[in-house]
């Protein structure tokens, strides 16, 4: 008798989980057993950039998944390994021991992920089959091509094609399966060291939390376009950690939106969800992005600054630019940063402090509970003008103007940079040297106008030199 195993990855849920549903059906039809497994390798995740907030969120989601699977009569086995490579070997040994011939999982893009699955195919016995579902995407990447047969490098036509494919084919997400197996008592998971993240913003992490938050957010989605850029307001969905862990799927979000509104290109929240898919789509075609490669190598030779204090002051929220510092402190204190501020903060690091975008990418990865490699890398390369559909090199956010526009009363700055709280609304966005010194706030680490002009000159020259030689 061939038994079944569900290999969980970044999909820590029981609802809308095709591999779990298919494995349960197969187990019922064949009167076989079903087991679930997860390779827990903090070392591998840390190598990919994850820090304590993401690792702690993983552990919380795994604990909840363990309970949910036990209620379905399925045991979750944790394979603890120093790497995915060792974990795959241990997984195959587990399958041999349990007489498992069919392993069900989701396809994942990425360099290490491809190596992991390739190793499974190389090492697994001939009768052992890996069944991979494409549920990570609303449409499989190889179905989304330009008229010339290439993958998309610009978001808008990608979105248009994707919406055209799914608008009439989107089906209701699968509910948690009811397989009729007797519930089990959940055994505590052996996850080793417990990582710490206090989650002070109460970001939804677990599957049930994600569903509750999604439903609550639908009631305010009409205000999303007007509120999403104001960091002092609760105008965003806060679902990024759930989406990064897979305790909520993008299809569940799309279906929920479709029950309230039409799936149109003008829907701002829908576009943000599809941006996440777009960056994962790119990894399916360009997995070498996981190796620190720029999508567009044209700007690879930019003369980045090597003074470590520039990066350190940006990380600590001590640049002397209030909105940038408030964003950094929010990240350090909560494990999350408002999306508008991710762009403002990143652009300041790359195009004003002239620090290599990869250092910023690594810091966000380490600090974010919602760290998702594709979204993080895509966002940083967009800011640095090295990525797909990136902002032109000459587009540089002025952080002071961004502050006046999106935090006009200084509420967000006052919350995270309390030393500036006594200042009037007009002064708080760009305090004079006298006011800053009097309040114990640092002077700007660089002169914004001078540095901006220098960045533009360097980018222009680099582009000219590249074009001459290519």
TrEMBL record:
Keywords carried by this UniProt record? Chromophore, FAD, Flavoprotein, Lyase
Where does the record place the Photolyase/cryptochrome alpha/beta domain?
Answer: 2-136
- GO BP: response to light stimulus
Q: What does this protein need as cofactor?
A: (6R)-5,10-methylene-5,6,7,8-tetrahydrofolate; FAD
A GO molecular function annotation here is: deoxyribodipyrimidine photo-lyase activity
Q: How is the cofactor bound?
A: Binds 1 FAD per subunit.
- UniProt-listed Enzyme Commission number(s): 4.1.99.3
Q: Where is this site: Electron transfer via tryptophanyl radical?
A: 304, 357, 380
Looking up Gene3D superfamilies in the UniProt record yields:
1.25.40.80, DNA Cyclobutane Dipyrimidine Photolyase, subunit A, domain 3 (1.10.579.10), HUPs (3.40.50.620)
Q: Which residues bind FAD?
A: 224, 236-240, 269, 272-279, 370-372
The record's SUPFAM superfamilies line, in alphabetical order, gives: Cryptochrome/photolyase FAD-binding domain, Cryptochrome/photolyase, N-terminal domain
Q: Which family does it belong to?
A: Belongs to the DNA photolyase family.
The name this protein goes by in its record: Deoxyribodipyrimidine photolyase
């Amino acid at each position: 008798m061939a038994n079944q195993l569900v290999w969980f990855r970044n999909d820590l849920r029981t609802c809308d989980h095709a591999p779990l549903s298919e494995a349960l059906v197969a187990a019922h039809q064949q009167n076989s057993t079903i087991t679930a497994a997860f390779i827990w390798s903090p070392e591998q995740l840390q190598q990919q950039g994850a820090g304590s907030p993401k690792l702690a969120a993983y552990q919380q989601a795994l604990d909840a998944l363990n309970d949910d699977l036990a209620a379905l009569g399925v045991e979750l086995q944790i394979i603890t390994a120093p790497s995915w490579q060792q974990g795959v070997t241990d997984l195959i040994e587990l399958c041999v021991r349990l007489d498992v011939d069919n392993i069900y999982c989701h396809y994942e893009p990425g360099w290490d992920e491809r190596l992991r699955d390739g190793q499974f195919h190389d090492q697994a016995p001939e009768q052992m089959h890996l069944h991979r579902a494409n549920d990570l995407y609303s449409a499989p990447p190889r179905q989304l091509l330009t008229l010339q047969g290439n993958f998309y490098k610009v978001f808008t036509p990608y979105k248009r094609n994707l919406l055209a494919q799914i608008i009439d084919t989107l089906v209701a997400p699968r509910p948690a399966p009811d397989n009729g197996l007797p519930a089990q008592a959940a055994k505590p998971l052996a996850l080793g060291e417990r990582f710490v993240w206090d989650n002070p913003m109460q970001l939804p992490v677990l599957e049930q939390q994600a569903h509750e938050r999604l439903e609550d957010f639908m009631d305010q989605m009409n205000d999303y376009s007007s509120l999403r850029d104001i960091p002092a307001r609760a105008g965003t969905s806060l679902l990024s950690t759930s989406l990064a862990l897979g305790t909520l799927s993008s299809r569940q979000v799309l279906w929920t939106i479709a029950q309230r509104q039409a799936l149109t290109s003008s829907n701002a929240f829908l576009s943000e969800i599809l941006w996440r898919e777009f960056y994962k789509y790119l990894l399916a075609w360009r997995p070498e992005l996981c190796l620190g490669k720029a999508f567009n190598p044209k700007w690879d030779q930019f003369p980045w600054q090597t003074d470590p204090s520039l990066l350190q002051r940006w990380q600590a929220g001590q640049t002397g630019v209030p909105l940038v510092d408030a964003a950094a402190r929010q990240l350090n204190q909560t494990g999350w940063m408002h999306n508008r501020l991710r762009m403002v903060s990143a652009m300041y690091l790359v195009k004003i402090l002239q620090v290599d975008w990869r250092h910023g990418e690594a810091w966000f990865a380490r600090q974010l509970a919602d760290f998702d490699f594709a979204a993080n890398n895509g966002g940083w390369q967009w800011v640095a003008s090295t990525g797909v559909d990136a902002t032109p090199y000459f587009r540089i956010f002025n952080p002071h103007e961004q502050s006046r526009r999106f935090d006009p009363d200084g509420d967000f700055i006052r919350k995270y940079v309390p030393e500036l709280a006594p200042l009037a609304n007009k002064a708080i966005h760009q305090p004079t040297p006298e006011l800053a010194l009097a309040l114990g706030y640092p002077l700007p680490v660089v002169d914004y106008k001078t540095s901006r002009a220098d960045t533009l000159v360097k980018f222009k020259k680099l582009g000219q030199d590249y074009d001459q030689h290519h």
